[in-house]
Write a structure and sequence with these properties.
Helices cover 1% and strands 36% of the residues. It is elongated, with a radius of gyration of 69 Å. A seven-stranded antiparallel beta sheet has the order 40-41-42-43-44-45-46, with no helix packed on it. It has a four-stranded antiparallel beta sheet with strand order 35-34-33-55, with no helix packed on it. The longest helix is centred in the N-terminal third of the chain and has 7 residues. With 710 residues, it is an all-beta fold. β33 and β34 form a beta hairpin.
Length: 710
Amino acid sequence: MRFPILLLGCLVACGPAPARIVSGEDMTVIVDGGVAPEGGASADLVARNADLANPASPDLAAACPMPCVGATPVCDPVAHACAPCLPAKDVCAAGAYCDGKSGDYHCLPGCKANADCGVMACCNHACIDVAADAKNCGGCGKACAGNGSCCAAACVDTATSLLHCGGCGKACPSGLQLHAMIGCAMGACVVAGCAIGYTDCDKDPGNGCEANVLTDPANCGGCGKFCNIMGGDGACANGACSVKSCYAGFADCNKDVADGCEVATTKDPANCGVCGKKCTAPPHAQATCAGGMCGVGTCDAGFDDCDANAANGCETMVTADVKNCGKCGNACLPAHGVGGCMNSMCSILSCTMPFADCDLAFNSGCEVDLLGDPNHCKACGMKCPAPPNASATCQNGACGTGACTMGFGDCNNKLADGCEVNLLADKSHCAKCGNACPGNQTCVNGACVNSLGFLYMTSSNGTAGFYRYAVESNTWQTLLSPPSVTYSQLTTDGKVIYHLGTDNTIYRWDGNAWAMVQAGPGGEASQPIALFKWTTGGTFYYVNDGTVTMKRSTNGAPWTTVNLPSNASCAGTYDPTSNRIYIRIYSGQGLMIYDTIMNIVTKTVPNAAGCGENSRTGSYYGGFFYTRDSGSTFQKLDVGTGMITNTAVTPSESHTATDVNPNNGDLFVGPYSPTGKTLQVYRPGNNQLTTLAPAPVAVTNHSTIVWSPQ
């Protein structure tokens, strides 16, 4: 082993002298006081950088006082001290190099040589990609001029380079396949020119000059020039549009691309089906083309095509054709007559006897049978007069009596007086012509009964029992009390007496016993004062005092309601001859006339005179309604005119109830106050009031009386 030897010469006083470099295995030294090379910091640095590897150098082992190991493995012969490294003997670890620029030696991060950088180069102790670094392009220190870029170890201008347009590796497409010349300008690929017949319409250099303006129907002759052919598809040849094909039903008959397939051959009578095929106008019609076939178009005025034959056109004159009048198929065939057609309107030329056209309307034909129509008996407009209480009839062209009004009969067979007999009240013709009532009996509702009838009475609170007054004998009889307390609700059908109890049950008195009939209208016990009437056909009517809701039930059926136009009172009369209920208006002396056949109020007769609701007086006879306020005179109201007359007759009792004998108009006045027993009768014929036999007991509340023929 050789040790380096430092040969001492003149260190301070001696002047400059040529330097000799002595090298050994572990050091480098400058001997004889040489000057540092150009760029060195001092003679010491020169000595430290000298090549001490010269095997001829003397042994310098004595330069460092001890062996150099560990973190300072190298002997610095100038400083005579161990150091981390020396440039000539760089023992720095991988990824570091020995640096002595600061006057001392240290290992700093960086490369020593190219071998430390793999595919890169070691430039100034840094690994540099000389294929892409513009300052070291192709080798260390080879900088690209200006703003040049380093692409693949060569300096290029990316603003104009086709291979590196806008950046390394960004090559512009080849223009040969794109019918274009491609260039690079300001770092972007651009189309610099197009081949003949091509144009760059979308301004995309990626597809070059994409539009063939010689053949492209969407850019024919220039960008955006679309071959839009009306009624068909277009084509482009040498930059000019042409008709490629027409849609079904269209044709290019004038060979003008401007209007395309201008003809609809399905409906053009000049080009029907194909170009040039002209439809000939049929007789009395315009030519037409439909579905590519010639046919009959609009008919001339007054004509129509009724046989659907195009050959003869509009062959029918509908202004005068009786089978096709005004339009095809409209035949003039009036009932019972012969029709005609004039000016497209059907008319009746004649009627078949005995029929006649009385309404002068074609649609009804000869509508009247002159032998049997009472409105046109023997001749139009000759109306048969309706006989009294009967309908008119026409038989064999002669007027006669038809059906009699219900309750009337034609007992003398004379047309002049019609159905002259009231079969419900005529003693000589009771119920039918020739059926006379014997003795002193009279006819009531078509039945022979005692001529003067009976009066039935009870009190409105049920405490006074049940009584019958015989008008003819002027006597009273006490009868069996009803099974339930009554609140003065009695009515009759002319044969039995009906009573509505507070248990909401209707009972009947047949002269011997009480029997249940049906359920009542419901919930009436709390409001006992009401109008309760039986009517022809078995219908009961009920309305509470001061309300508008009329309730009705027929032959046991569920109760239904009808609303009245005004509040009703509890006073009123049922007239079996007219089937009407006459109802006094609540708190007044006017009345409502209720038709039980139509179930409506047919007339309201108002009157401003007041009437306290402590009076149950209100009865109808002979066209007049008789009523009174409590304790005052009878008032006579004309139901036709509404005029009211004071009779000046005052019953002796107040708070009275009344009922009338419809056969003679006798108006019975029941008792209440002051005696509770006084029964009177008012006869409108002579305007007289007669006192009858007193009741057997005093009535302690409003009495209810009802007249019955038996």
